[in-house]
Amino acid sequence: MNTYLGIDVGTSGTKALLTDSRGAVVRTASAEYPLSTPKNGWAEQHPHLWRDAAARTIREILRGADAADIKCVGLTGQMHGLVALDKSGEVIRPALLWCDQRTAAECGEITAKIGAERLIELTANPALTGFTSPKILWLRNNEPENYAKIAKIMLPKDYIRWLLTGENASDLSDASGTGLLSVADRRWSPEVLRALDVPREWLGALYESPEITGRVSRLGAELTGLREGTPVAAGAGDNAAAAVGTGVTRDGEAFVTIGSSGVVFAHASEMRFDARGRVHTFCAAVPGEWHVMGVTLAAGLSLKWFRDNFAPDASYAELDRLAGTVPIGADGVTFLPYLNGERTPHLDPAARGAFLGLSSSHTRAHLARAVLEGVVYSLRDCYDVIRGTGADFAEITACGGGSVSPLWRQMLADALAVPVVTAQSAEGPALGAAILAAVGAGEYASVPEASAAIIRKNPSAAPDPAASARYAAAHAAYRGYYRR
User: Fold this and answer.
1) Most exposed of 27, 101, 112, 319 (fewest Cβ within 10 Å)?
2) Given this model, what pLDDT does residue 261 score?
């Protein structure tokens, strides 16, 4: 039996998933690890955590599967993280992650060197604190002794590729989030590299997502138990892989995810971008195509923060039930989910969260409802900017942990005024990585063909016009709070 392995190097843990040639999940395994926050606004992980988790989950998969049946491996994972290696291939310091906010000064430095408009022309995106390029400059400015050791730079999932194959390579979707890629031309930007004095030899070779980037080496086989010589596909950044794993691979298709962060993602066969840089335009996992993506930094993270600090005795299901007892608008309570700053639409790393409108009549149920609604309003902000680029869709697919909640799904449908569906498989990025591996191995002729053949959708949640009107008014008030 031909099987395909997807590996997802996430922020809270790594997941390995094995599918058959029709995309049916055969086995899964996962391993968690901590997030380090040495200072307010900082976020780091040591790449060895990912190495150990990937090795452990792959070996767990192989306890019930034959390594010889695995015809290709696909990779996905958290984007933007800076992994710096020295000339011997050793990790220099813990990786700076996508949610790290320490690089505001470096973003200003990049914008001053290249120019705000020119930077968007070159990379389709502004300089953002989460991106990789300002992290490189931060090392130069703040840890010159570590900067001087750099011989290779790679993204989180590509560090696993390096361990498996010995190849420094990346796919175009993940590379789009570095701030160093010419997204229109699908190559590293010589102008940006010169302006920032980043040597080209530090960066990996670039591939389309289903292309084969190398094969499992002897060292990779010893680490994981995979068969030496097994092909490894380029894979994709987590959201591009999630698009493949939820069936969003053609024009008119979109998804919204409520994970730790929140994303609204629309596929585009032609390049689209927002001139103000409020949403990301990245290369898609579909070769030669793109996607537009709005990001809110604390979606499911907001609910986790609320539960951990204010309702530690309650399960997520109990918070869902409590929120459902409160009407739209939470009786006047509004939550701003800017716990880690915000990207879309504000591009403001200094933004901070708040509960507004509290009175002595409000209860924990009101606050729970306000958190759910605040996240939905932040996703509505993303949705509105994406529609402003010319994207349009008849329905949207919900994924991520938050999509399990029927209440949250209905809120999305009502607030976005569009039907919301879910995929029958909730595996998302890991499944997308396995599908890309299957395409790379020749099991399918194209990414859209594979995704359409494998992904099935559940019935949709239709928007209620009366509820949509109430959410529209509440969203307008929510936006006013940020401006004030």
Assistant:
1) 112
2) 87
